[in-house]
Amino acid sequence: MRSNHTHLNAKLRTAFQLREAITVDVNHEEDDPLQQQHSNHIGEYLALAAAGYFHETLMHEGGNAKELQIGIAWGFVVSKIADYLEERHSREVEKLNKIGHHENPRKRTARNFWFPLIGNFGLALEASQAGEICHRLCEIYDGIVEPLGIGTIENPPCKGPSPAEQKYFCKLAEKGDVILTSASHWHEHHLLFRIGRCSPNKLPPVGPQVAGLLAGVFLAPDGSQVPAALEHYRIASLGYEGFQQVASRGRVILVAGGKLHRPVILAALRGKLASVLITTTETGVWLLNRQATELS
Amino acid sequence: MTSEPQPRRPRIGVLCGARTRHGPESVFLRFMRDHYDILREFDFCATGGTAQSIVDIGLYPEERVEFLNSGSRGGVVQLTARVAKGEFVAVLFLTDPRDLWADVPENRALKRVCIEKQVHLITTRAGADEWAVHEARNALSAAAGQSLSSWKPKNWFAGVKNVLDGEHIDLPLDETTLALISHNQMKQEMVKFVNNHVHQLAGFHRILATGTTGWMLRLVQAKNESLGHLSTEAKQHLGQKRLGEIMADLPTVEEPHKNQRFVDIVMPLASGPKGGDVLIANEILKHRCHKIVFFYDPETAHPHEADIRLLERTAQLDSVYAFCISDPRSADLWAQDLPQRNFP
C-alpha cells in the first residue's frame, strides 16, 4: 500500500491536534505479543525516525536558554532509540555539547527524570532497562542529562521508590518538557504478568474495556483512564493528568505502531496524552479512518 | 537498514538555511518526513549541514546522501557545478529571508544556473509540497533509463591537486592547470595575450576555459590541417551563428607561430552564462585548477554576474591555493616569466 504521507501526516496532526505526526512505512504491520521479533521489527523502523525527532528536539530546545527536563520511559523501542542516539553521538560530539551550560555541572540546564518501573516481584529487569537507558543518554549527552536516583535502580533487588519518592517523581515528571514513551496493548501475556508477576486481581481485566497502557497509565478505548492499583507495585510514572499537562505544554513523543497497538495509540490520542506521534503508515491510516467513522 | 550498495537513482540537490532545518518541526525536516514515501526513491546531494540533517531524520540511509562541503566552504559551488553538469532532476533551496547569507553570490549563482539549465528550482515549502505530490513521480519516470550527457570536452583529462592534507604543494609547470576566462570585449585582449605567449602557455598541464573563449583560442592557434574538424566541433558547441561571429573577429596568426600543443590542452567548458565559470570554480575548489587569468570586462553588464563573483570568492577560500590575474598588463608581465618549452 502506498499512501500520500503529506496528507496522512497533515491529517493526523489536524484530527488529533498534534504538534507533529510522523508515519513510517514498514514491511510487516503484524505484531504478535508472543513473537517479539515482529514488534521489534516495527520498533526498529519507528525508533530510527523517533531518534531523529528526539535528537532534533533536544538540539533545538536545549539550545534555548531555558531549563529542559526530559522524561524517558522504558521498553524495546525506547531502548532502540538510545542505540541510534549512541551511533549518532560518535560523529556529533561537538554538536551535542550545545545542550545546556556545562561549564559548571551544578548549573546544567538540562535535567532528566525517568519512570522507574520497580516492583517487589522481579520488575528489576524492566527497571534496570529504564535506568540503563537514562544512564546511556547521560553519556551520550555529555553528562548534561542527569538521571535522578539511578542508584536505586542499579542495585537490585530493590524495593523501588517509596510512596514519598513516587510522589516526588510524579511531581517532577509533571514539570517535564519532553517525554519519550512507547505504549503497549493489554493482554494476558503482558510483562506485568509474565515478569512482574502482578496479581490479575489488582490490575484491570484483559478485554475490550482496556485499550492498553502508556507508561503505567491504563487507558480505555475512548481515551479515559482505567483505574489501576499500580501504585501497589511502586511504579513511578506520570499520572493521567500529568501526561495531559506535559502534552499540552511541551512534547509527549509517543512512538508506537502495529495492529495490536492501534487501540492504545488511539486512546492516548483521544485522551490528549501525547502531542507527537511516530507510528507506521498503516496505523496512521487506521487511526484516521477509525476517528472519522466514530465521529460520523 | 541495509548497507548493501544500491544503484544510483535520480538525484535532488538540496541546500537549506539553518533556520529552515533547525527544530523538530522545521520546514525542511517536516517536508522530508511528510514526503518520505516519494523522496526515498531519490538520492540526495546536499551541503554539509543540510546533508547531516537529512541523515539525522532517520528515514534516509546515509549511503543515499552525498555530503558536500558546508556552504561557507564551497558547498554551494559544488552544488551549482553539479547543476551545470546536469546531475539533478530538481534542486530544493529553502532559505529564511532573515538569514543574512541567503543572498550571497553563490546562492544567486545556484538559482541562475538552475534556471539556465532548466532544472526545477524549489524555493518554498508550498512549492516543495507541490513538486513532491504532482511532479516527483514524473521526474522519476523521465529519469529512468536516461544517461547523463557529458559536460566534459572531448580532450578532457584530470588535473593534479596542489593541496594535500591541507598543505600546499608547489607544482611544476607541466602539472599546473591554468584557467583562461574572458568576457565580452575582453575576448580580443585574451586572444592577443595568448598569441603573445602561446609557447609559454603551452607548457601548462592543461588549460580550462569558458566555452567561447576556449574555442576562440583553439581556432586561432589551430594548424591549417586541423582547422576543419575543429571548426565542425566548435559549431556543434557554439552554433553556426556564434561561430561565424568568432571567426570574423579572429586575427590571423602565421602558421609557424601556431602551437598545436596549446590547442590540444585547451579544454573549452560550457560558456559563462551556461555555467562555465561555475565548472571552473569547482575545479579550483578541488585544488585541480591553480592559476586563473580572468579578463573581466568592467564596461559591460554580465547576465551571469553572480557566477563571476562565485568564481572569485572560491579562489579566496582559505582552503584553496590559487592565484588570479585580472588585467592584460599584469598577465603579460607574469607570462613573460614563465619558462618556455619546446614541444615537437
In sequence order, what are the helices and strands of chain A, one letter per element?
HEHEHHEHHHEHEEHEHEH
- Please count the helical segments of chain A: 11
Strand runs of chain A, count? 8
Average pLDDT number of chain A: 70
| Largest sheet report of chain B | 5 strands, parallel
Overall pLDDT level of chain B = 90
Q: Please give the share of residues in helix of chain A.
A: 40-55%
Structural class of chain A: alpha/beta
**Using only CA atoms, what is the Rg of chain B?**
22 Å
SSE-based structural type of chain B: alpha/beta
Kindly, what is the distance between the CA atoms of the first and last residues of chain A, rounded to a whole number of angstroms? 25 Å
Per DSSP, what share of the residues of chain B sits in E-state strands of 2 or more residues? 5-15%
Distance between the termini of chain B: 58 Å
Write up what this structure looks like.
The complex is a heterodimer of chains A (296) and B (344). Chain A is an alpha/beta fold. Chain A is 44% helix and 12% strand. Chain A is built from 11 helices and 8 strands. Chain A has helices spanning 5-15, 36-63, 76-89, 93-96, 124-140, 150-154, 163-174, 191-194, 240-249, 262-270, 281-295, and strands at 20-24, 68-72, 110-114, 178-181, 212-214, 217-219, 251-255, 276-280. In chain A, strands 1-8-7-4-2-3 form a 6-stranded parallel sheet, sandwiched between helices. In chain A, helix 7 packs parallel to helix 9 (240-249). Mean pLDDT of chain A is 70; it is low at 92-129 and 142-159. Chain B is of the alpha/beta class and 344 residues long. Chain B folds into 2 domains: 11-144, Methylglyoxal synthase-like domain (Rossmann fold); 163-336, Methylglyoxal synthase-like domain (Rossmann fold, 3-Layer(aba) Sandwich). Chain B contains 15 helices and 12 strands. In chain B, the strands form 3 sheets. A 5-stranded parallel sheet of chain B has the order 3-2-1-4-5, with helices on both faces. Chain B has a 5-stranded parallel sheet with strand order 10-9-8-11-12, sandwiched between helices. In chain B, strands 6-7 form a two-stranded antiparallel ribbon. In chain B, helix 8 (186-201) crosses helix 9. Chain B is elongated. The mean pLDDT of chain B is 90. Chain A binds chain B through residues 2-6, 9-10, 19-20, 22, 24-25, 44-45, 48-53, 55-57, 59-60, 63, 84, 88, 92, 251, 276, 281, and chain B through 1, 22-26, 29-30, 33-37, 52, 56-59, 129, 132-133.
